[in-house]
Amino acid sequence: MDNAYESLEGRIKIFYNQVFVADNIKEIIPEFLFLLKGTLDCPDLPLNVSRSFLQNDAYVSKLSAHIIRKVSDKLTKLFKDQRSDYEQYWKDIGVFVKYGMLRDEKFYDRVKDIALYRTVDQTYLTLSDLKETILYTPDPKQQIAYVQMARAQDLPVVVMDHELDNHFMSFIEFKNPGRKFKRVDAELTGKETDSAHAEKLTTLFRKMSGQDKLIVKVQSLGADALPAMLVESEESRRMQEMRKQFESMQGADSSENFDAMFPIEMTLVVNDDQPIISRLAALSDLPSRADEADLLAHQIYDLARLGHGSLTAEDMATFLKRSTTLLDQLADKDLT
Question: Would you identify the CATH topology of the domain 116-184?
Fold first, then answer.
């Protein structure tokens, strides 16, 4: 975070009795406010002293606290009096406000009720406007299938697409016991089908994917949902984020060592409301059409991976080639 915004430092000029002293002294200006522009004339500022002295100087501490209070008061007034303008500004200042909440306890207490959460529908909500479990997405376009299902249930989905947001969500959960962020693809609600039908489809998809331990659930997701969708628990997703941090510290060569520590837990949810799933189940009962069933199962599985965003480039090429094959078969049937 610090490195990404270093180019923005030096915006606030410090003066002593109208004599320029320095740019953006961090002991005076909290680093999360480095987006501010302006000047400060500090007649009681101690000069010709070390940074360690500044850090412990009572006047400097008071001045820093005053700046934090003035900024938070200004944001609060803007939120209350000019909410629409505040929402427009949030696009630019949101990340700095979040960063400040993480770094400074007093700033957090002052702005926690005016921090905004942008939804996929471009509305802005506060934490009090949201449910105990907060659905979010890092990429509304990539996860559109999951977002649409949440919309169908009138559930708001907030966008958390900044590198800071993983830390921010954990922080908000810590500060607000009972609150829980859950990625929109972490769980799908729907009535589960009978065990025999589910067992048949589970066997088919495990054989097709070559994953003996693939978790498969057969549920009613609605006719407008995809034939199958992948879900990954929020706990698993956060473990993968932790894995990335470990790999960045120890190097990519150590990635295999983390497979057991940070397993990826995916569940394939098969939508029993889609006619193509009934078609697939029927084909699986016909030994003479096993190849056709396998082809269709592959296509459904890769379609779920595509909607989830976990389809690799190589698998995408295979998916497109298989799509062409299926279109050719459909065209041949239409001609006959």
Answer: Rossmann fold (3.40.50)
